[in-house]
Amino acid sequence: MDHFKEIYSGYKHRVYFFVAKYLSEEEDIEEIVQDIFMHVWKYLSKTHSPSEIEALIFKSAKQEISNFYRKRKMIFVPLENSPENQDEESSEIEKQLQQEDQLKKIESLLEQVPERSREFFIQNKIQNLSLFTIAQENDISKTAVEKHVNKVLKFLRTNLNFWF
């Protein structure tokens, strides 16, 4: 019991502020922090070193935050004609337009790479063919196919403003 009190007093503020980065409601934060320390209490006997305890605490924190959002997503049901829903629809349209612009930019960049590399990239990333399958079909090594695909990825990353 004393060991748990020591851990609690040593980590309560760090855990609180860690959770507060992801949640805004005070009640939700306090509930998550309580759940985290309940989890720590439950598994404390299986940990030995201070680094294991810290790993347990913050792994539990990440899991509890994920569980919180997962539960919230299941509970939330948008109203059809609410102003919030209309704002979401307009932002959804904006997102769709941005995605279309990004796709056009990717297509134009793909036209700039060598044809063989482009074909391997499309087969692997868009058609979901494995590197091994592409290599067999083209009578080359898997490593060679991988180099072609990685070359295209590197080219796209350096010429785009977002990451895959």
Overview of the molecule:
The protein is an all-alpha fold. The protein starts with a helix and ends in a 5-residue tail after the last helix.
Structure described in brief:
79% of the residues lie in helices and 0% in strands. The chain has helices at 2-20, 26-43, 50-75, 83-110, 115-126, 131-138, 142-159. 15% of the residues are buried.
Lay out the secondary structure.
Layout (H helix, E strand, L loop, with lengths): L1 H19 L5 H18 L6 H26 L7 H28 L4 H12 L4 H8 L3 H18 L5
Helix pairs in contact: 1-2, 1-3, 2-3, 5-7, 6-7
- In the predicted model, the low-confidence regions spanning at least 5 consecutive residues are 76-82
Total beta-strand segments: 0
The ordered string of helix (H) and strand (E) elements is HHHHHHH
Distance between the termini: 47 Å
The secondary-structure class comes to mainly alpha
Biggest beta sheet attributes: none
Percentage of β-strand residues: under 5%
Shape: elongated
Radius of gyration: 24 Å
Helix percent band: over 70%
Compute the number of helices: 7
Average of the residue pLDDT scores: 81
